[in-house]
Amino acid sequence: MTLLASLALRFRLLTIILTCSVILLGAWAVTRIQVELLPDIDFPLVTVTAAYPGAEPQEVLEGVTIPVEEILMSLDGVENVQSVTSGSFLLAVAEFEFGTAMNTAALRAEEQIAMLTLPSGSEMPQVIRANPDEFPVLQLSVFKRGNLDELKELVQLSIIPGIKEVPGVLSAQVPSSAMAGLSITRTNSQPSLSISVIKEPDANTITVSEAVIEKLAENGDLLPADASMAVVFNQATDIKASIESLQREATLGALFAVVIIFAFLLSARPTFVTSVSIPVSILGALIIMYFQGMSLNILTLGGLAIAAGRVVDDSIVVMENIYRHIQMGEDRRKAALDATKEVAGAIATSTFTTIAVFAPLGFMSGIIGAFFLPFALTVTFALLASLLVSLTVVPALASILINRHEARLDRESFIERLYAVALRWALNHKAVTILIAMVAFFGSIALLPGIPKTFLPGGDENLLNATVTMNQPVESLEMLIDGGPVEQIEGILEPMRANSTVDNYQVSLGTGDASFGGNRSLTSTANRVAVLVELPRNTDAKEIAEYLRNGFAQNDREVRVSALQLGGPPSNGMELVLTGENYSVLAEAAQRVLEALQDVAGLINLETDAANTESARAPVRISRVNGELAVMISATIDDPNTQAVNQAVTQKLNSVDFPPGVRLQQGGVFEDIQDSFRQMAIAMVVGIGLVYLVMVVTLRSFFNPFVITLSLPLAAVGALTALAITQRTLGLPALMGMLMLIGLVVTNAIVLIVFVEQLRKRGFSVYDALLEGGKTRVRPILMTAFTTSFALIPLAISASKGTIIGAELATVVIGGLMTSTFLTLVVVPVVYRLLRRDSPSLEATNSDQT
């Protein structure tokens, strides 16, 4: 590490040129890097759809569903197989272990299903992989008054070919059910056709979406005057909102960090030298991300925003030490080299320990590891870049720009004197100090029951998904429109669109789903109306959903309205599965569950897929899980404290008397919470172990890492207190903040203890080394803690909820750093004093002097 500093100081001009090159290359990488909403995740799902026209559900089940299920369950890596046989259609979904080679699995499924001998008249099942690259980046709705056949011709012959000409567009398609007349779509009260636009895997989402919209808006040949177009969904809008929000918050955070540095140093040049590390480290991380094939998405952008405050820490320690050496009268170049050598080991250890904390994420299974690994990699790249900058760029610039006039003596003596008083008291009252720390820790643990707990906090959704299911089937889709539920729905939504409460809405009937990729889902029936509602930004989606829920409600139908979550894994869905051998018994058990849960606060859209067996006219739907008959019960959780709803649901379920042979399984977000908390607890334990090992290797000691590790519980005091005060949820982002705190907290202790050890080697007693080391290191420790915390303030108070990594993580880090820093400055020296003793010769010398 010290060799880097020596080379940077020997070739200062080259160091500055390389720094400028990183800035230019990073700026170029920003323009070239792929921009997405979510990381590139290979979802372990394979979907099989099939049709058996004219057959009854039982015939489809025996002739098609069961053979398909048997093949799916025989595949390597399969964890779960669910199927729905509805009408003459089959939908089966196989869930594999994360890490399974899904291309191979899908190909194997397709090959074996192709060899099936199916009943005469049934269509060959289609195997579809759940691939994020096949999710539409843009969904348009084209409508015009007149004959629907004319609209179909316009779309097929003019609009779709025109869209496909746009660079980066992989496909543009209308649901096949709409072209065949099996479904009807209406947009803003007019007959319409939906067009789903899918981009090429390597294309930029924002560029493709904007180019398609621009082509349709400017080219009259594609969209004639008597036709209109509505953008029902645009992934680029969410991405741009997230990018703008995170850019704003990261920029403000960086400015706050610069202000804090200046407040401690009260000099422009050292502030400039230190602040250079922020843009250089962030741009350096972007360069690595680009050449690693990573994308800018809500996870990696969140990582960069979080890193904006941390990347300056190493440079602060180096700059402050150089500043102190120059204050003592040393030559600038010699001061830069000696000061950097003095702290190089400490900052390298602190950086590597922070990186080591994220290592367990690479081995976490399921959606958690898949989603948060890009975040961890982004922070890691930024930290490695910041360490390199602190050991090269900072000493090189400091040796040129800093002089004795810039480093006047004793500017911060008040802080040092104040801290020395507190430290002396703590060292002389060790038992009381330890007792205060323990009371603070256990007091914070006592706050846990009052902190809301969830899987992922709700985002700033602006799409509502509603379904209106009639209690009785209808003879034709047209009966649902004029004088039916569609007329009532449009009667409510049209005035809302007129007064800009709603931007656009789309109503779908028949085979397919109202949302995206309508030809992919075959679970809709002839008695169901699906509605997709686009809301303006910064709208209270929860309030409008409740208004629509009440407005759509009638005695002859079931209504479900919920926010459509697109910014990550679903975090508001409850799923219960009842399995058994007798469908009537399962339906009866499902009814008991519905009655038990109907009054649970925070639970809405409660429904079951169990058919009404008393009505011969009711549609028949057969669900199966892993080869067994099943009935699904679902609901939406409309409360930020998901865990509290989970406890209420569990209590109600315990009171239900289930018939013999019926088994209950919980899924959805309840299962996600338990899994995420369990995996993150393991990650924290493993992370602490790795941190300790890294410190043992770099510090060449077992004792000092043990003392430093004892500072970790002190972070929980502020982290849990901050969550309790703000009532922010304890979920995956907050747990990620806890994980990050492990690395940040030990940084302060490392900087302190490493210097204390250096002083003891010079002959200082333990007591004197702690006092002198504490006074010397209090300023950089406070600077790093305050810069990191203040840099996260914009993210913590941001009103934007469009990112997974956001306010909760920032709140945890700020709270944890504030308390752990102050407690570390007094508790760690006390623990060190309790466990370390002076050598006999030094004790005798001190005794003689006394």
Description of the structure:
By secondary structure, the protein is of the alpha+beta class. It has four domains: 1-32 and 266-411, Multidrug efflux transporter AcrB transmembrane domain (Multidrug efflux transporter AcrB transmembrane fold, Up-down Bundle), CATH 1.20.1640.10; 43-130, 2-Layer Sandwich (Alpha-Beta Plaits), CATH 3.30.70; 132-237 and 460-562, Alpha-Beta Plaits, CATH 3.30.70.1320; 414-446 and 701-839, Multidrug efflux transporter AcrB transmembrane domain (Multidrug efflux transporter AcrB transmembrane fold). Helices cover 56% and strands 15% of the residues. The protein is built from 27 helices and 18 strands. The strands form two sheets. Strands 1, 2, 3, 4, 14, 15, 16, 17 and 18 form a nine-stranded antiparallel sheet that branches. A hairpin with a 2-residue loop joins strand 2 (78-86) and strand 3 (89-96). Helix 13 runs antiparallel to helix 14, helix 21 (669-699) runs parallel beside helix 24 (732-761) and helix 24 packs parallel to helix 26. The longest helix has 36 residues, at 366-401. The chain is elongated, with a radius of gyration of 31 Å. Residues 512-524 and 613-619 have low confidence and may be disordered.
